[in-house]
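Meet my pick.
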Amino acid sequence: MTGSTRSGMKVVALGGGHGLYATLSAARMLASDVTAVVTVADDGGSSGRLRTELGMLPPGDLRMALAALSSEEPRTRMWADVMQHRFGGSGALAGHSVGNLILAGLTEVLGDTVLALDEAARLLGIDGRVVPMAPIPLDIEADVSGLEEDPRVSRVIRGQVAVATTPGKVRRVRLLPSDPPATPEAVAAIAAADLVVLGPGSWFSSVIPHVLVPELLTALDRSSAQKVLVLNLAPELGETTGFSAERHLHVLSQHAPEFGVDHVVVDSAFVPPGGEREHLARAAARLGAEVVYVDVAESGTHAHHFGKLAAALGSIVSSQGDAASSVPRREGITSWP
């Protein structure tokens, strides 16, 4: 969908990493006003180094969100490619992304991460906005079982990279500091949104953290926007090994029992017709949601196809626009053609 045919609705996408990149790439096909609300707990690679050395928010996921929303104009695309370029070699710059260093420099010069992101957004011709979910760097701490001889014993693992790569089974995650503040711009964007999308992405380190920030959870609860949860296409090695689609919803509810959404988008191949869909419908009902089964996969991969995901989100918005506001939300299963 070209810029001239995109709608005037306001879309907010919450997440981090490659999952958020997919959501943003789909959302910008639907609307020009897209705000990315990005996790800030990364402690690995270039982001972790800059976070430790400069005390800044980890810039990697923020940079990827900027790249996803960048204009298609050739010169702008060139700058997006530069932002994503990673230095090789073995020196001090090895492994750093150019965009991470640009954001670090802008933050130091302007004195504020949001101002730095807004300036980078202007450079990339972005109509929307990229904001961190919190104004301070966060840490993720998890209770993980299966690392001791006694499978009933849990060990506390700290750090996003450690949690994402643990060979054990993640039982629960927490943010440090607990009850962190939300970025005011993120709260305002959710309040003004017509559509809010959470996921896909690393479930314990990119998706669940958003509902652990009290002000974000309150904003989501109060928002009149259509709220959509997008499930991953397959369990992730480490974080969610062996998880069913139903289990993804259960752990989300366990972390935020009051959290609710309107729709859960599930790839039809991930949960084929059968009894599992009945279990998933019941789990979704606890969130107040309908399940939407649709092909959203890039053929032969576990990555979301941007166009298919955009079509699925567009169908949800269109169907709600056609429905009378007085009709109560149905619980159960819906399939889009």
